[in-house]
């Protein structure tokens, strides 16, 4: 049969080299199959890239934008005080705790990972060793042999249903353990708040789990059917065996529910001996067990595992074949298509087949026919490149995101920063949803109504000015578990920016400690520089929405707020000349004074720390939050977010001209860029998110992602080409450790895609792109209405410089820019490359 020939060929190819060019499909000549996309492109996708190191991705055989993501979770015996614990997948670990059904791609955080299934034999129901030599991870398919139990486990998925097939050794009893608690406790962990479990039939089980970590009452339901009835059923509740077939609260309410609840349920199912594999189909829902059951029953694959693999791969081939590439190496193509694959893992559809979905208010809603609810928006990361990329290659989806985010405001009362399964997390800085919405609206204004513009403006205005008055009754963050957490979702930073012109560094401190905090909510007004800079950009985005809505008063208000980045810049050539810079963004107190400098006696003439310290040099306060040193890196809760001022000084993408002026003009701007890329990469107090150094430029974290392109606003634009080329070559590799930082739900991969294409959007919300250095000789990709082509004449690894460039036959504008509207059907961006660096006169 056609479907089996595809799967057989695909699985056979998976043990070979990734990147071969032959077409592995054997399509029939029937009309039914004539329009199926070629599967050859799938050979350029390696889901194991980034599974070691900091990538934090997993090898789930997910469908494009699929809401269920089955994947192995490791058991790490070295963690949790040496006792071992379940952890996300890391290739170097070979212990398996189970195959759970929900995952986050590359966020480095232990959330989701609900409902872990583990096949076993005998009494070996604890962590088992994976035979890494047998492990296969490819598009639509994952498999591994388990050493102690000699079970072969295989995974695949449809949009809402995970398929797991277990092949047992001959004569062995076939058993499956389902761990409904399955908390990830390696570094960050989610915690089960309530678990419900029920045996539905002799071949079916169901349940629900409410947990918290990022999400405070993240709730997911499941329904599972097995290919055979089980003859044995044994459940453990809180570690104690029970004969009950239904335990826990079926209608747990989350906030305010005081009833006794169960937090730990493990079930063992015995299918007896037999010569057939056991296949389990698991469906999830955000609304109810009935919703999960309907999602499973809507699937028409029966237990045909191979057919699901084939359908999954066809879906991915359709997505990935948006691009055709000529030139480059096999490694380049593998990195490109794997990156494209990662950008379609999320946001994903998060609603049942009947259109029901859980809103941000925790209630079940019915979607209109033209609406789709999505989930997992890592927007602090993805507003920079992943969402702009979708506006280019998937216009309709990008428009749907904007409508979905506005609907999340309608159901939840505020825009999310980092949404997780219809739950607010309050994670990261500012209110980045306004960037995503503004960017789509300015590119496709005809896709939105006047009512849409007005709703977007209202959502942005409320979110940027979140205060106690409008949220005093807001659920779910005023809850019995965590107290009043409303201001971790949106904080008072915006209020300070409007009233004071910037966010003071001492706003978080109580008056008795030398600060100006008014109440407990001010204690969350931290990371003053990072919030202040980013919020200034977000306010500029709100101004663009206000312009579309025709609200001049709001436009003027938010344009004024967009200048709030300027007070942070300390222009002091005599002080910062030792770093080669004219100044830095630095924390500023309420009274206008700068936060204290690191003791000068501890720093040499180049700004590096002196070791050993000179006699009498007192640095007792050097670890205080109230210390400024350009190399001082901070994670969270101080004045910078996941970095230092070297990185954050550049975050004013909406006002490059103003940033230049603040730095002392064109010469100062160029001087500071050069200082960034040539600064010492050793003299910092680095923390985990700071990886991929070129000087103090950090490729491995998001705040710097636009910075190499800023040389296009100087007299030396060829340095953009140099540093983009260097970053792509040094920090992205088709290896297990091939991602320099967290994947962050598509952002790291999207940056690479844009770099490889040769252009980038420095300012989401302004429909303008600037160029970098194209990687391939020719790229064609689908856009609304046809195809767009990028060509690079005389391209080679050595020819990294641009001799000339045109868009649709015309020269680019100032700063090597072109408009979003120039990316048109039949259009072409044409580069002529050279190995000669321009001579500076």
TrEMBL record:
Gene3D superfamilies: 2.70.98.10, alpha-1,2-mannosidase, alpha-1,2-mannosidases domains, GH92 mannosidase domain. Pfam families: Glyco_hydro_92, Glyco_hydro_92N. InterPro entries: 6-hairpin_glycosidase_sf, GH-type_carb-bd, GH92_a_mannosidase_put, GH92_N, Glyco_hydro_92, PNGase. Residues 1-19 form the signal peptide. It comes from the Bacteria. PROSITE patterns: PROKAR_LIPOPROTEIN (PS51257). SUPFAM superfamilies: Six-hairpin glycosidases (SSF48208). One of its GO terms (molecular function) is peptide-N4-(N-acetyl-beta-glucosaminyl)asparagine amidase activity. GO terms for cellular component: cytosol. Residues 44-285 form the Glycosyl hydrolase family 92 N-terminal domain. One of its GO terms (biological process) is glycoprotein catabolic process. Keywords: Signal. Residues 292-834 form the Glycosyl hydrolase family domain. This is Alpha-mannosidase. It comes from Photobacterium carnosum.
């Amino acid at each position: 049969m056609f479907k089996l020939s595809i799967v057989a060929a695909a699985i056979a190819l998976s043990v070979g080299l990734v990147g071969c060019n032959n077409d592995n499909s054997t399509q029939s000549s029937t009309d039914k199959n004539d329009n199926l996309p070629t599967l050859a492109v799938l050979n350029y996708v390696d889901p194991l890239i980034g599974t070691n190191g900091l990538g934090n991705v997993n090898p789930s055989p997910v469908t494009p934008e699929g809401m269920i993501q089955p994947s192995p979770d490791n058991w790490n015996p070295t963690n949790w005080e040496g006792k071992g614990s379940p952890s996300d997948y890391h290739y170097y670990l070979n212990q398996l705790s189970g195959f759970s059904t929900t995952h986050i791609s590359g966020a480095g955080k232990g959330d989701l990972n609900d409902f872990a299934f583990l096949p076993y034999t005998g009494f070996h129901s604890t962590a088992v060793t994976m035979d890494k030599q047998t492990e296969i991870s490819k598009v639509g398919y994952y498999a591994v042999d388990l050493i102690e139990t000699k079970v072969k486990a295989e995974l695949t998925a449809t949009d809402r249903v995970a398929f797991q097939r277990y092949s047992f050794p001959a004569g062995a009893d076939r058993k499956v353990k389902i761990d409904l608690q399955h908390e990830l406790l390696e570094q960050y962990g989610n915690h089960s708040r309530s678990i419900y479990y029920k045996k539905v039939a002799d071949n079916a089980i169901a349940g629900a789990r409410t947990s918290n970590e990022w999400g405070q009452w993240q709730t997911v339901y499941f329904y599972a059917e097995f290919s055979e009835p089980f003859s044995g059923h044994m459940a453990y509740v809180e570690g104690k065996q029970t004969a009950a077939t239904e335990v826990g609260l079926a209608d747990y309410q989350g906030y305010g529910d005081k009833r006794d609840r169960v937090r730990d349920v493990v079930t063992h199912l015995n299918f007896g001996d037999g010569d057939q594999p056991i296949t389990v189909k698991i469906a999830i829902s955000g609304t109810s067990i009935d919703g999960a059951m309907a999602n499973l029953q809507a699937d028409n694959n029966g237990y045909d595992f191979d057919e699901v693999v084939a359908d999954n791969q066809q879906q991915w081939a359709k997505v990935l074949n948006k691009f055709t590439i000529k030139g480059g190496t096999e490694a380049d193509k593998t990195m490109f298509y794997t990156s494209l694959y990662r950008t379609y893992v999320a946001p994903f559809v998060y609603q049942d087949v009947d259109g029901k979905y859980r809103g941000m208010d925790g209630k079940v809603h019915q979607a209109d026919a033209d609406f789709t609810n999505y989930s997992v928006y890592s927007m602090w990361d993805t507003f920079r490149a992943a969402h702009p990329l979708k506006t280019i290659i998937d216009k309709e989806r990008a428009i749907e995101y904007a409508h979905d985010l506005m609907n999340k405001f309608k159901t939840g009362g505020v825009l999310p920063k980092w949404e997780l399964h219809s739950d607010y997390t309050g994670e990261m800085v500012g209110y980045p949803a306004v960037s995503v919405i503004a960017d789509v609206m300015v590119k496709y204004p005809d896709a939105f109504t006047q009512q849409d513009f007005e709703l977007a403006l209202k959502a942005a205005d409320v979110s940027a000015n979140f205060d106690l008055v409008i949220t005093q009754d807001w659920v779910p963050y005023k809850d019995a578990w965590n107290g009043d957490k409303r201001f971790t979702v949106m904080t008072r930073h915006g209020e300070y920016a409007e009233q004071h012109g910037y966010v003071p560094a001492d706003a978080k401190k109580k008056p008795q400690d030398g600060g100006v905090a008014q109440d407990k909510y001010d204690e969350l007004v931290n990371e003053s520089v990072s919030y202040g800079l980013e919020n200034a950009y977000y306010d500029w985005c709100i101004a663009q929405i206000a312009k579309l809505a025709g609200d001049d008063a709001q436009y003027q208000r938010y344009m004024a707020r967009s200048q709030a980045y300027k007070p942070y810049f300390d222009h002091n050539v005599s002080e910062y000349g030792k770093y080669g810079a004219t100044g830095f963004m630095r924390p500023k107190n309420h009274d206008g004074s700068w936060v204290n400098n690191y003791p000068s006696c501890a720093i040499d003439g180049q700004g590096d720390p002196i070791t050993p310290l000179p006699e009498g040099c007192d640095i007792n306060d050097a670890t205080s939050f109230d210390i400024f040193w350009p190399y001082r890196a901070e994670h969270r809760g101080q004045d910078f977010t996941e970095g230092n001022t070297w990185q954050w000084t550049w975050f004013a993408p909406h006002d490059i001209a103003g940033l230049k002026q603040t730095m002392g003009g064109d010469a100062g701007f160029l001087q500071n860029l050069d200082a960034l890329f040539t600064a010492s990469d050793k003299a910092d107090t680095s923390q985990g998110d700071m990886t991929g150094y070129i000087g103090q430029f950090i490729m491995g974290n998001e705040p710097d992602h636009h910075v190499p392109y800023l040389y296009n606003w100087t007299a030396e634009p060829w340095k953009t080409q140099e540093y983009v080329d260097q970053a792509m070559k040094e920090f992205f590799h088709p290896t297990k450790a091939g991602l320099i930082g967290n994947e962050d739900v598509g952002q790291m991969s999207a940056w690479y895609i844009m770099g490889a294409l040769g252009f980038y959007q420095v300012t989401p919300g302004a429909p303008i792109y600037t160029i970098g250095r194209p990687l391939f000789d020719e790229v064609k990709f689908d856009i609304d209405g046809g195809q767009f082509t990028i060509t690079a004449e005389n391209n080679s690894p050595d020819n990294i410089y641009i001799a000339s460039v045109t868009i649709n036959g015309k020269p680019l504008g100032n700063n090597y820019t072109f408009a979003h509207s120039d990316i048109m059907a039949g259009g072409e961006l044409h580069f002529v490359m050279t190995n000669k660096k321009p001579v500076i006169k």
